[in-house]
Amino acid sequence: MTKQKVRQSGKTAVSQFILVGAGLGLYVGLFFRPLREANFAVAIALALLATAVFAIPALLKKSRPTMGEWGKTAVTTFVKFALILSLLEVRHYVYDLGGKWLVAVFTTLLGAAGGYWLAQRDK
Question: Which pTM value belongs to this model?
Answer without folding.
Answer: 0.72
